[in-house]
Structure formats: C-alpha cells, structure tokens
Amino acid sequence: MSMRGIGRGTGPGVAAMLFVMACGSTDGESSAPGGADASHTTNARAILDGQIVSGNGNDCTGTPVLVGDFFALGSFGDTGAQPPLPASSVVDGSPIANGAVSVTCRVHESSTGQFDVNVAAIGGGAFQLDGALTNTGDQAGIHVVGSRSETRGAADFEASDCTVQYLTAVQGVAMGRIWGRVTCASAKNGAGKTCSLVADFRFESCEQ
Q1: Whole-angstrom distance, CA of residue 17 vs CA of residue 1
Q2: For 187, which of 50, 109, 142, 164 is 20 to 30 Å away at the CA?
Q3: Nearest CA to 126 among 105, 143, 106, 102?
Q4: Closest Cα to residue 26, out of 43, 40, 41?
C-alpha cells in the first residue's frame, strides 16, 4: 500500500459518526505541514492510508470507478528511503484546503487486556472504526465506515465484520492509542455495491 500525503479539503462533516473527545499529549512526532490552527480543541492525531479493492466474489463496479484510494491522511514515512522519511501524523484541527482536519478518538481499557475503541477522522474523506479489541492476535467483528466523501450517503462503504491485524511488533492497542491494519472483505455502499476495504491506521493522544 502506498503512503501518501496529508488529506484533502473538508466541507459539511459527518458529525453523526464521530464522538467529540478531549485527548492527551503528543509523542513528539511531527504534525501536518503548517501545524494546527487555533480552533482545534484536542491533541488527537492520526495517520491513515485507505484503499478500496475488488476483493473475492464482490460486485465492485460502478461509475465513477470504485476501486482506488479512499482516504489518506498524513504519512507513515519510508525507513528504506535515503535519507529515511519519518512518519508524520495530522493533529485534530490542522488546516487543509477549504477547512480543517477533524480527528476524534477514544481508546479505553474496559477490562484487563480489552479495549473499547472508537476512532474517526474527516479530511477530504471519512473513516470510522469501532469495536472491542485486545493486543494479541487478529481482532474480528470490527465495525468500519470508509468514504471518499465527507458527507454520509451512497459513497459510504460500511461493514461490521472487519478484521484488525497488528503487522509489526510496534503495532497494537493501549490506553489512548491504536495502530494496525483493518480489512473489510465485503463492505457495502448505499448503491448496493460490495467491495473490500483495506486501511492502515494509527490514532494517538486519544481520550482514555
């Protein structure tokens, strides 16, 4: 999956799919170019790289073409580049064309080893993920909404049987943060089309 730059402009948001949350301190990672504007109210930050793919046995056809990028925010960097490119997350409220990025997230340990996760971002596209996750093994039964549009409608792809995987030793879930890859094998949009969603995501400085 390619790692692209900061998300694109915003418009009327998908407020119904988000929780407005206060989040903690940052981890020292660089934020979006230009920094956050004075209107942002949390330190929540995210990196996203999402794709719509055909998948197996899906009817992923339509006009405009459905397959391709659906949302990119920040950059995961490239440690193999010379010189290496560091990761760059985007802070809630960071200015972009025609608006500002919205990042809201809550990652709370509800019982020993289990975390209630609800994370979302808007910024030229929309992404929401929620469910109960642990820090070991594949995490099934996760709800995801992904869209190229910031307003809810037929462009949304939604599924409740997605799987989160932790692909490296540094990925996982802990109080106030989560990092992994989510795959939705059969996500359906409002037009009745079914595609697969794959997104690398990282949310930090979330409400605990």
Answers
A1: 26
A2: 109
A3: 102
A4: 43
Which phi and psi (to 5°) does residue 131 adopt? 160, 180
Asked if residue 38 is part of any domain, the answer here is no
d(CA 44, CA 123): 14
The range of the structural domain enclosing residue 95 comes to: 44-77+85-204
Question: Does 8 map to a domain?
Answer: no
pLDDT of residue 191: 85
The sign of the dihedral angle between the CA atoms of 167, 171, 174, 175 is negative
What pLDDT, on the 0 to 100 scale, is given for residue 148? 82
Number of domains in the chain: 1
Average pLDDT of the residues of the chain: 80
- What is the pTM (predicted TM-score) of this model? 0.77
- What is the pLDDT, as a whole number, of residue 162? 98
Strand partners, 187: 195
In a domain, 3, yes or no: no
Question: How far is CA 20 from its chain centroid?
Answer: 16
CA distance 108 to 116: 5
Amino acid at 166: Y
- Within 10 angstroms of residue 59's Cβ, the number of other Cβ atoms is 14
Q: Cα(146)–Cα(119) distance, rounded to whole angstroms?
A: 12
